[in-house]
Structures are given as C-alpha cells and as structure tokens.
Amino acid sequence: MKWKSALELLKPxxxxxxxxxxxxxxxxxxxxxxxxxxxxxxxxxxLIQILVESFRLDIATASLLSxxxxxxxxxxxxxxxxxxxxxxxxxxVAELIVISLIHSGEVNVYHEWNHKLTSRVFMHLxxxxxxxxxxxxxxxxxxxxxxxxxxxxxxxxxxxFKFNSVDLERKWIFLPSSILxxxxxxxxxxxxxxxxxxxxxxxxxxxxxxxxxxSVNSTYYFGxxxxxxxxxxxxxxxxxxxxxxxxxxxxSLYSFQRNHxxxxxxxxxxxxxxxxxxxxxxxxxxxxxxxxxITPNFDKLAKNGFLFQNIYATNTTSEIGNTSIFSGYPxxxxxxxxxxxxxxxxxxxxxxxxxxxxxxxxxxxxxxLKYGNIQGYLSQHDFDELADEQDFPSHLTKGKLNYFDxxxxxxxxxxxxxxxxxxxxxxxxxxxxxxxxxxxxxGWQKWKGKEEDYMNSVYYADQALGQFFERAKKxxxxxxxxxxxxxxxxxxxxxxxxxxxxxxxxxxxLIFGEPLKAEHRGRQTEIIGSQxxxxxxxxxxxxxxxKGFIFSKDLLSPxxxxxxxxATIRGYGFVxxxxxxxxxxxxxxxxxxxxxxxxxxxxxxxxEALFVAxxxxxxxx
Length: 621
Fold this sequence. Notes:
Distance between the termini: 57 Å
CATH class of the largest domain: Alpha Beta
CATH architecture of the largest domain: 3-Layer(aba) Sandwich
Strand content: 5-15%
Strand order of the largest sheet: 4-3-5-1-6-7-2-8
Number of domains: 2
Number of helices: 20
Structural class: alpha/beta
Shape: globular
Radius of gyration: 27 Å
Mean pLDDT: 89
Number of strands: 12
C-alpha cells in the first residue's frame, strides 16, 4: 500500500470520532435550550468547561459507536459497489436514530425525573398504552420534534463529512486493517491503557448535579444503565412474600429507642476523622481474633477506644462499602448504587447532616477515585474536597494500584493541619488491596504461610496507621477529634477462605479519640450490626438527627435489634444472636446455616423480609 493510501485509511478514524462528538454536543445544546430554566444559575465558564471535561467520555462513546460502521466502511473499500455503500450509510443512520431516541426521551423525562434517562424507562415501556395515556400531548410532540431534528442534523453532518471509500491496492490489507481499527477503538472505548476502565464520573467535575448530567453524554449513560439493568435479575429471585409483610417485619427490626441517654462521646462538637481500611478482616486483628501480632497498633488503639466486635460489611467491594458507611445504605446482590447516580443522589450522607452545623468534608484516596464511581457518589453528596492519586507528589513511589499507606497518611496529616475546625476528614487506604503494594523493607514482613502476601500487607498497614497516630496526637486538633476506623469490606485470610460464609464479612469498627468518655475507653460491645449502622449510631452520638437514615440502626440504643444483613456475589446472608445463614440465588439453597431447627424458620423469614424491603426501596429511588 502506498503512503498516500495509508494516510487516507487513517482519515476516516478521525472523521468517525468527530462525527459522534459533534452529535453529542448538538444534543447538549438542544438539552440546554429546552431546560434553560434549570441552568439559569450556571455560568458561561462552566458551560465551556463541559467541552473539556466531557471529552474523554465522548471519545470513548464515539469509539464504541464507530466500531461496527468502520467494518462496513472497510467492506465498502474492499467491494466497490453502491450496495456496500448503502449498507455502510444505513448502519450509520441506524445508530444515529438510536442515540436520538435516547436523547429525545431524556429531554422529555428530565422535567419530572430530574436525572438522565436510565433503564427505569423499561418499566414504563412494558406498558406502552399507559405511557401514551399519561404523557401530555405537548410532551409527545416535543419528543418527536427533537427526535426528527437530531436525526436531520445528524444526516446533514454525515453528508457534510463525505465519507468516501478508498482504494485498497492490496486486498489482503482488509483483515489486518479491520483488526487494527477495532483494537484502536477498544483502547479508546475503555479510556486508555489504565487499569480501571473509564466510567461516567470521568465527566463529572461540578457539585451541581445538573451540570454533571449535561457533561455525561446520554448514549454512554443510558448504555451503562442498560447493562446494569440486564445484569440484574433479582426480581426473579425475590422470596415469595408480600411487600406489606416484608415491610412490617423490616419495620420491627429497625424499631429502636430513638431518644436515649447512652452517650459515649462528650458533647464537644468534635472533628470527625474516618479511616477506611482497605480489606481489613476481623480474622487478622489481634483484639478481634485468635491471630496475634499482625495489628499491634490497632490493638493498642482498641485498648483506649470503643470496639464493636460484631460488625459486618454489607458486600464485597469498596464502592458499596463507601455508600453503606456514609449513607447508611444496605447492599443487594449484583447492585452497586454508586454506579447509578440518579438513585444514589437521593440518599442522605453523614457529611450533609454535619454541613448544616458548619462542618467541612474532605476525602482522600491513595488510588483512583473513579473506581466504582466512588468519586461520582462523593461529589453528588457535597464533599467539599476530593483527592486521589492525581494529588500525590510526583516524586513518591507508587504501587500498581495505590500509593503506599505511609504516604497516604503523610498527605492526610498535612491536609488536616490546613483545615479549619470543625471538619470531617476521610482517608481510604490501599496497601492491603491485591497486589498488596507496600515497601518491602527489612523487618516489615511478619507472616509466613497461608495468605502470606495479604497478612504481611496488613502488618505493614498497621505500622503506617501507628505512625499516623503518633504524629496526629501532637497536633492541637487531636484533642477534640473522634476517629472512626472501619474496613470497606472483608477479605479471605489464613482462617477464612470463602466469601460464602458470613465470617468473611466480619470487619473492625473502632471509635477512638479524646472526646470519648473516660468510662467507655477500652470497652467492647457484642451487638451485631453492619457498616450501614454507622450513620445512625455516630450522628446520634453527635447530638444530630439520624431519622433520614431509614436502614441504619443506632447500635448504642438500649433496645436496638442485634442483626446484620449482607449481600454476596449471587446471594445474601443474615447474622443474628441465634446464628447465621447464607443463601445462594442460583442454586436456590443455603450454603451456610448455623441456626438450630427451632430458630431457622423465624430467622430465615427476617432475612427474606429484608431482601424484599431493600429491593423495593431500591426500585423506588
């Protein structure tokens, strides 16, 4: 192939990408015009910033849309005929029609939903007659007008771009060219070669959810939501229980004394520091298990803090752990609410309650906050400052996924020192996440044998934690600061190997600090709860209302029910004072059951009621 022909083969790649990016911006302009009243407080600078912040996600979406048409274009180059040309153009127009349908639908529903078009639309399309009867005639006209306008403008752009075939002087080049183009589009579609693929929050940059909605192109957002919708088959696995019955049982489980005097914190309006410990399992912590010597610094803190011995993670991933910790939200199998902004933005978070009392809120992660859309969730919930690996000094050594915990704590310490009180600061560690990146210094390896890498990473992380507290206690803010140490989820260890057992989910929760009343230092409680109970428990201790957290119970209330519900990969588990069980959705059987025959029916019914109630609540968001 001549050099000129090679250049001509490259040109369509840019034309394909540019065509779709232009179409996305046309959609944004139409959206802005129709919903101008919702953007009256948006500055021109912010609108221009959308062009920059939306670029990566637009290119990723354009790559996905270009892959199939590119193959037909190559076929047209290979087989010169009017038929092959028409097939190529038909594929382009078909995709144009689909994305125009998505966007015109979004423009219409945004008036009522106040979020982008999602798989929720399928619940309505299942009854098309109802849609037509309930939709106002003006909405129907607007839908068809916008749809026709976007298709018309897209076809004009297509004609203006003049996609022409090129001569393949050597026919054999067709196959390698196809592979090259598809590989290029695949790389662009995932956002590059980084370990974590691009997600919706790559286009988020504002605390204004409407601006973020405009920044994320409708095609990617809807496609992502559709994949989540198709993946979720929980409706088929719900226990046979009426919603009313499920709600009655759930209400009884979450019935506890809302007003009590069991305060373990002094009323000093303390600063709050969350330390979210990546993958820390209770089974490796000395003060919570038979394993000794791995966590001496945590154990030292526990001797002067208030330790919850029976806390369970709600699921197995970090993004779910974060939403449970800060929003008191329980988990469901196969669902991460952080990936569904239109739903998670309706949840309340701890920092939003504290903000009303003058608290600022900050979050620092040693890895990429885009993972699991954690950044999107946090930004939607009014955190004042978010920082991740992009904010670490460039001279530091970085592991495969994260900066080392010691460097995280160093930056965390500096950020706290610069913050005006009262504040809520959060640090999310990373060295205990596979592949367990930490400095392999002499004497820092403690464990030999099963799960050696993980166990040694916890030992390192504990050393880094101890160093942080040694530095922190010298600062003036330390005396009026409460530290909440909790894991994001559990991990297999030398004693626990399977996520299909409830003990896999048992994690540490420690409240520590000078504002802790003297008589409660060194105390432990056996009450059973989960990460989702932190919100109600902590807020009540801070003399704040916790009523907005309907699935979070106050673990320090005198008559609170002792239980925890957790979701697994394809199932759910329940833990109470009488035992535990874990049910698998696919095999339709209990993989674990430690209840006596006399208790099993009652406890099983509680777990089923919670599953139904949680799912119905999720659907209602």
